[in-house]
Amino acid sequence: MTACAPDARVMVSPRYMAGAGDRFADVLGPLIHLFGWRHEHDPATGNVTMDSPEGSVFIDFRPLHPLGHWVTVTHHEPYWEAVFSRQTPLEAVAAVTQALPHLLGDRRHSDRIPITEMPLDRLADLHGWAAGGNGILTSPDHYCRLEHTPGQEIGWQVEHVYFENAPLATFTQDTPEVIVRQFFAYLAAPALVERSFGDVPLSTRHEASARVAPVRPAGMDTALVQALDRLLGPPGRPGRRR
């Protein structure tokens, strides 16, 4: 696409090509303001630590982690851990963190925080991902995949070819599948997400199968935009004009 100013707002699809974005408040804010989770912030490092009211779930946000392990969610008894890299779309991370109170039995605000009940294979089919052998789901453009390895320490891993040394997400084997479903549902959804152009990975800006377009002009009818999206189809699939 034509280059934009770094602070210009653009819409990006598919989501796994969009980078993290800047909506980090959606990841931690609801836990603090709606559910009363305890939190501490270190201004010197930017680190934020959180724990659930009953002390069974902990969240670490470390923006300067040397390996890019940006967000870690840890549960005790049973132990499981989910780790998200700094290239992971924050919409998918927020889908996980916002589901944690429900998982712990806190049903407040359940009408505002949808929980995905659709199995992974059906979610994959819905969004055009291919189910291969050995528990692998692959995106339509073949750039992203989710691999399920039962019995291994890492039970699920989400990889992107442009970030080979840093998986978008890993989930240890005892992670409840609802957590993986939440993440995958929001990662694989073809709906456009908003980013600052400067935050969109360089690989995405030059990739033909990705869609990067300026935010629609003010006043354009939402129904019209959705109709155009349906007409054009998801990136890289039949029906989309180039």
TrEMBL record:
Residues 52-100, 138-192 form the DUF317 domain. Pfam families: SPDY. InterPro entries: DUF317_SPDY. This is DUF317 domain-containing protein. The lineage of its organism: Bacteria, Bacillati, Actinomycetota, Actinomycetes, Kitasatosporales.
